[in-house]
Amino acid sequence: MKKIAVLGLKGGIGKTTTTVNLGAALAEKGRRVLLVDLDPQANLTLALGFQAVTDLSLAQFLVNKASFHDVVRFYNKNLHCIPASGNLAKLDRLLIKLHEENPFRPFVLKRAFARVPACYDFVLFDCPPSRSMLTINALSLADEVYMPIQCHYFALESCRNTISLINSVKSRFNPLLTLSRVVPVMGDPRKHVTKNVLRELRLIFGDSLSHTLIRENIALVEAQGKRLTIFDHDIRCHGAEDYAALAEEVLSQMNAERTLLLTA
Ligand SMILES: Nc1ncnc2c1ncn2[C@@H]1O[C@H](COP(=O)(O)OP(=O)(O)O)[C@@H](O)[C@H]1O
Ligand SMILES: [Mg+2]
Predict the structure, then answer these.
(1) Which residues have CB under 6 Å of ligand 1?
(2) Rg from Cα positions in the chain
(3) How many A from CA of 21 to the centre of ligand 2?
């Protein structure tokens, strides 16, 4: 089970779209995927057509008032989701208080995850755009971080805070955490700005920059409105093509790492 936090300390940069559609692409390729909505705004939950109900959602699961089977929702056979609701914000405030008393106490996500069945190949956490305790919980539990970055000139400035948060959680709570993939999103490969930003990102992030550019594509917006993944909305659009390519990249890198381990 690979646990990936999709992170960026800014709203509107493509975290939820990437969580939903990368998850859906991995599910299309036969992997079992669990998406966890950690954002009290519940965009991921709504984007998959589920309701953000307070009584059977992530907050209840985290405080052990609901079982995994009570809260899990099935988008399709391979793509499942633990929905969020507004009461996650209340839980976050409680976790901040507990954190002030004892920095190691409020790791509710790690504890709750012992109750998630081991059948999933991937767990993707859709993080809120803030340094909330829920974000810190996700980073403390995740193996890797994926960071979407918009192909705009000021994108690099905006990801500094995200990288410093990753480093801080890594040094305090999760030494194995890595920023393993920076995903350029909302770009247009014909435009100078996209080419320049990609060149700059390659210099900074090297191989951690994914080779797949998620192009700007209105179908991704429409799919959210229809409460469908991009594959169920329009399998031939650029968005579907790009997220399928990103999933392929993720899987082939995992295979390469496995081969390296076996031959070491
Ligand atoms: N590649 C893309 N092309 C066009 N619109 C996109 C793309 N990715 C995301 N969007 C749109 O941008 C908005 C913000 O994306 P979202 O994934 O919700 O960001 P975040 O979760 O970081 O707040 C949404 O309306 C979404 O549909
Ligand atoms: Mg979001």
Answers:
(1) 8, 11-17, 43, 129, 185-186, 214, 216-217, 220-221, 224
(2) 18
(3) 13
